[in-house]
Amino acid sequence: MRKLYYAALFAMLGIISCKKETIQESSAVSASEESDASRYSGTVIGGQQVLTIATGDYTYPTSQALLWLPYGYIYPANAEKKYPLFIALDGMSEQGTDITALLHSGTIAYHIANGWNPVSVNAANNKKYAFIVFTPQCPVAWGWSAPHIKTMLASLKADYRIDTTRIYITGYSAGGWGLWSCITDDVSLCKQFAAIGPVSSAPGSYPDKITNVATYGIACWNICGTADAFYPTAVTYNTIINAAGPTKTVKLTSLTGVGHSAWNQAYDTSWRVNNKNFFEWALQYHR
């Protein structure tokens, strides 16, 4: 019934702790790495490799995903280098089996497809970091939950050089529900994230457990429009987490007059709050 309620609402809408970085090796790319297309094998869409990845789900045991690897990832000189990982969870409009739907305007995958090279400055130490971006496509309505992400993350860590102290997750719309599931439904998964970014997020299924953000020292930046039907939830969640006494940043950015579309601001690197975009803000934190 909960999923049916949220689906109806979307139809109405039209649609162990982390710490601030002090010293860390830079993962900046060089000009010589800009033409490195051979880091991918198989199908490439929007500059990102199309993957088939296990989900751990009986109904749909595998699913498609888009993966961005930094330029120079395969260079021998970088063979031991590990990279931060951003997991981006899709909304209902991007779900299904048409992988190109993940390139929907305003999404992280969209910005990469339009030429953005995922490299950002860590605001805590002013160093540049290239990072991996993983965007899984949920094949059925509503979205990913903690068991799926836990299975996929384990696979990514086994196959790619991921800095496990720097794993970040963001999700918009139904993907926000999936993000909250990762925080509330499985503590061992929750504790793997350094920072989270719910955007125009649907409510989680277990709001009484969102205090795990504070308990496990996870930084959180919630971004939502004031004209979004989910905005009251964003306000409530921010209040609940802050009341739990977090030691890391927990903040809500309210976009005045914006409806269910805050991802257009949140993932645009030119959009900044306190002189930081979302990626620069997240990279300040590591476990």
Features:
single chain; 287 residues; alpha/beta; Rossmann fold; nine-stranded mixed beta sheet; 9 helices; 25% helix; disordered N terminus
Structure description:
- This protein has 287 residues and is an alpha/beta fold.
- It has a single domain (41-286), classed as 3-Layer(aba) Sandwich (Rossmann fold), CATH 3.40.50.
- It contains 9 helices and 13 strands.
- It has a 9-stranded mixed β-sheet with strand order 2-3-4-8-5-9-10-11-12. Strands 1-13 form a two-stranded antiparallel ribbon. A two-stranded antiparallel sheet has the order 6-7.
- Strand 6 and strand 7 form a beta hairpin.
- Helix 3 (146-159) crosses helix 4 (174-184).
- The longest helix has 14 residues, at 146-159.
- It starts with a helix and ends with a strand.
- Major sheet characteristics: 9 strands, mixed
Distance between the termini: 37 Å
Work out the count of structural domains.
1
Number of helices: 9
Strand content: 15-25%
* CATH fold-level name: Rossmann fold
Average pLDDT, all residues: 90
The coarse overall form would be: globular
Task: Compute the CA-based radius of gyration.
Answer: 18 Å
Number of strands: 13
| CATH level 1 name | Alpha Beta
Biggest sheet, strands in spatial order?
2-3-4-8-5-9-10-11-12
- The CATH architecture designation is 3-Layer(aba) Sandwich
Order of helices and strands: HEEEEEHEEEHEHHEHEHEHHE
